[in-house]
Specification:
The chain contains three helices and six strands. It has a single domain (about 10-135), classed as Hotdog Thioesterase (Thiol Ester Dehydrase, Chain A). About 30% of the residues are buried. The two termini are about 20 Å apart. It is α+β, with helices and mostly antiparallel strands.
């Protein structure tokens, strides 16, 4: 488990030298079963037509869902691995920020399922995603 007393600054520091840093993903709030984060819509996250790349949205969604699972399992005993991700992109984002709200909807012993909605600065739904994580016991 990630220390539940970790500060947002400590959680964001874990993203140094990773895809999350390259995309500008920042955690805003992390609690048991809930993660809220933001990502800029800029030259790093847009596709050539000037709108948010769907892959950037998926990376944001998998990031918050994976952190959410890591926050609630014992990472000394288990690994968290993404198993399945699906998304519906319903609106284009052209600038500003997008915000991901991840809520756990199934907390099993071996699987977690997260619903992740991504909104723009006007609180309009951009993408809705579903992530399934495997919770895998580490070999002894």
């Amino acid at each position: 488990m990630i220390n539940p007393n970790s500060t947002i600054a400590e959680l964001n520091a874990m993203n140094r030298n990773t895809l999350m840093e390259q995309l500008g993903i920042e955690y805003i709030e992390v609690t048991d079963g809930y993660v809220y984060a933001k990502m800029p819509v800029n030259e790093r996250t847009k596709q050539p037509m000037g709108i948010l790349h769907g892959g950037s949205s998926l990376a944001l969604a998998e990031t918050v869902g994976s952190l959410g699972s890591a926050f609630i399992v014992d990472l000394d005993q288990n690994d968290v691995r993404g198993s399945h991700m699906s998304a519906n992109h319903v609106r284009a984002a052209k600038n500003g920020w997008v915000y991901a709200k991840a809520v756990i909807i199934h907390r099993g012993r071996n699987t977690h399922v997260w619903n992740i909605d991504i909104f723009d600065d006007d609180n309009q739904l951009v993408s809705t995603c579903r992530l399934t994580n495997f919770i895998i016991a580490k070999s002894k």
